[in-house]
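Objective 1b: paired records.
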Amino acid sequence: MNDDRISVTKLSMDGLNWVTYHDHMIWTFSSQQWSDHLTSTTITQEYIVTGNINGQTLQSRWDAEEATAKQLIASSVPNHVFKWIKAQITATDI
């Protein structure tokens, strides 16, 4: 699907909606075919099998999707959570 207009549930300031937030994020990542970014810090076998797409190498596609996945998470959490996670390198780490 890969739509630029991805809508996600925001994590509340008190975190009381964590379960719903978590489930929405899993569904969102799945809808964009980014689930590997939740479980792996490097290119997975699925990326290798798929190969290059539209002139994008495996690494450039992984890096672009990783950056977007991290931004999606960052934009959906309150500032006090972002301050805690911003030093993480990968979406999996976040």
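Objective 1b, second protein:
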Amino acid sequence: MSEAIESFRVSVPDADIEDLRQRLSRTRWPDQIPGTGWDYGTNTQYLRELCDYWQHHYDWRATEAVINQWPQFLTTVDGQRLHFIHARSAEPNAMPLLLTHGWPGSVLEFMKVIGPLTDPLRHGGSADDAFHVVCPSLPGYAWSGPTTETGWDIARSARALDTLMTRLGYARYGAQGGDWGSVAAEQLAHQVPEHLIGIHVNLVLARPPAGEDPSTWTDEERERSGGLGTDSNQRGYVAIQSTRPQTLAHGLSDSPAGLASWILEKLRAWSDCHGDVETSFTKDEMLGDISTYWFTNTINSSARLYRESRVHGTVRGPNTATTVPTGCAVFPAEILRPVRRWAENRYNVVRWTEMPRGGHFAAWEEPELLVDDVRSFFRTLR
């Protein structure tokens, strides 16, 4: 019965919610040198405020209601449980679309875009732009986790997502994603190009060609050659999650404040918030994502994706460009912002959009911009 699909609703036991509040009440806080702000990592004063709100005011049941408004299911693929939202459009010519999140995100990233994508008429669009949306939790993440064996790198995860789409009856489909979702879309384009109508990515993983003389670059290319890939201050999380995630997990799985600190820093650093994270996300939105990791106890298996993908060398993908038509949405506060000619060495770029605002969490931060670009890109491929 491994191919069985069963209905699912998120429902965290009351005892788990009370345990979270008790743990928050017993947090032992570290010191912080006055005046250092966020320079050494997560600011303790702000984290204490957020955790106080988490303990006394945040309502997980409201987050559950947001998730549970969409039909959810569980199935097993390659021996691994897979959770997914399957929101079918009422429009007869809707296109199947796979939406895949990344780290430290979850399906909650897509709560603002599923409605406009499945029901465009209700959200100012045309019925011709409708999608059947499949939005999985990556293997090892949230209700798809934890993984129970080694080997779950992003290539294997992408194969599992393709199996899911086939199981749902979608012989051909579009794929969209950022962060790991972007890598998964690219993997699908290499592994099963015949299944892909097109891919749309909002993290464009493309570097200058090896051996190219930097003195020939434009000012824009020199500016964009930096970013997360060369900033050692921002890559500490990659180093440990790609090597020793188990060591990190003992602290993050036991301390909700520690988990919040680990995720909060990335929400602030990678969003277009100019240092004030609540201009990009509300406290409830941030805590919904953090609580998802907490209640499912999947911070460890989510981080393992980094180690498995490093060990198997599957982040960069093959050395040849994909043949599948690709749309690239480049947001100004994204952790990597390549130029088109670099991206064309890796993708079959047919649409390139420089966005006016937004960061790493595009569907979460700027849902209208992302939806419009996804509609425009796939409109040419229907």
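Residues 326 and 349 are 5 Å apart (CA to CA). The chain has one domain: 5-26+60-379.
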